[in-house]
Structure formats: structure tokens, C-alpha cells
Amino acid sequence: MYKKIANDIILPKIRRQLLTENKFSKFLLYAIGEIILVVIGILVALQITNWNESVKIEQKETDHLVKLFQNLKLDSFKLKLGNFRHRRKTILINTHFSHYEYSN
Q: Which of 2, 28, 87, 91 has the fewest CB atoms within 10 Å, measured from its CB?
């Protein structure tokens, strides 16, 4: 009984027919065909996984470039602000010294 259940579960109908009819060469071709289909399925799955990983990497690169651009804009603004403050202080110092020179 266990053998019958095992054959019903493990071996599909086509395989069972080929083996019971003693057509081993046909069974061998069938088995090789199944192996090829499994290998093709695995290769397709690997390709999809690689594609998905490359999309994730490209997205991370894009995110890093956007952050870099935003940081460069912020740094540029800070430099301009610092330059403005520096010029303003220079003008105030020059004005102060020019009043000092004229008062002496």
C-alpha cells in the first residue's frame, strides 16, 4: 500500500507509464527534458534577481547623487552668506578706521 501511495505521489502518470512499458530511453529523454526545464527556470529566476539588484543599486546611486547635489547647493549658499558677512564686516571696519583717521 505504501508503495502504491509513493508511486502515486512521487511519479506522475507519464513517468509511471514510461517505466511500466519498459521504455527506458524515452523515460531518460523525459527526465533530461525536466532537468533542462528546471535549469532554465533557475536561470530565469537568477536573471530576475540580478536585474532587481541592479535596479536597487541604481536607485541608491540616484539617491546619493540627489543628496550630494542638495549638499552642494547648501554649501554654496553658506559660502555666499559667509562671503556677504565678511564683506559687511570689512566695510564696517574700513568705515570705522576711516572715521578714526579723519578724527586724528
A: 2
Q: Is residue 58 a contact partner of residue 67, using CB atoms and an 8 Å limit?
A: no
Tell me if 18 sits within 8 A of 27, measured CB to CB: yes
Contact yes or no for 2/17 (Cβ under 8 A) = no
Nine-digit cell string for 47: 536573471
Q: Which helix (H) or strand (E) holds 47?
A: helix 24-103
Task: Decide: 50 and 43 in contact? Cβ < 8 Å.
Answer: no
Q: Give the per-residue pLDDT at 88.
A: 81
- Residues 6 or more apart whose Cβ sits within 8 Å of residue 24: 18
Q: What is the pLDDT of residue 66?
A: 96
Q: Which cell is 94 given?
A: 574700513
> If DSSP codes are grouped into helix, strand and coil, which group holds residue 3?
helix
- CA distance readout (Å), 77 to 19, 80, 82, 87: 80, 5, 8, 15
In whole angstroms, what separates CA 55 from the centre of its chain? 4
